[in-house]
Amino acid sequence: MIEPRILQRATIVGTVLQIAWMLLGHFFPGMRGFHNVYLFGGMMISAIAGYIYAMAYGAGFKQGALGGAIAGGVCGLIGIAASVLIGDTPFLDIALGTAVTVLTGAVGGLWGEVAARMTRMGK
């Protein structure tokens, strides 16, 4: 089961970071020249959103990966769509970019669950 309030918080954090990353790339076009760095940054932000969700929820790997995938995918989609709207990214990147951010959000969710379990063990 997905916890909506935690999912909302993780998605908002991820979306704010994605928009900031997109604006950074827009106003500093030299950064986009390093396409892999720009792509990697967006992927990491989605992984962070997934990590935040699973760390806060701590209900198991399946729930962490699912919630992380949703949080990472939604914030990634919003960031990529904003980048397409201002003309920095081709329209075709929406599908592939969103799929990648869903995957990285799920991986972040798995690591968030690991962190949640480690935190519980330390108490």
Explain this structure:
The chain is mostly helical. The protein has one domain. 87% of the residues lie in helices and 0% in strands. It is built from 5 helices and no strands. The longest helix is centred in the C-terminal third of the chain and has 30 residues. The protein is elongated, with a radius of gyration of 15 Å. The two termini are 25 Å apart. The relative contact order is 0.20.
Order of helices and strands: HHHHH
**Count of individual helical segments:** 5
Helix content: over 70%
Instruction: Kindly report the average pLDDT value.
Output: 93
Q: Total strand count, please?
A: 0
Largest sheet: none
| Rg | 15 Å
What structural class should be given to the helix and strand makeup? mainly alpha
List the helices and strands and how they pair.
Layout: H1 4-27, H2 29-33, H3 35-57, H4 61-85, H5 93-122
Concise overview:
The protein has five helices and no strands.
Attribute tags:
123 residues, mainly alpha, 5 helices
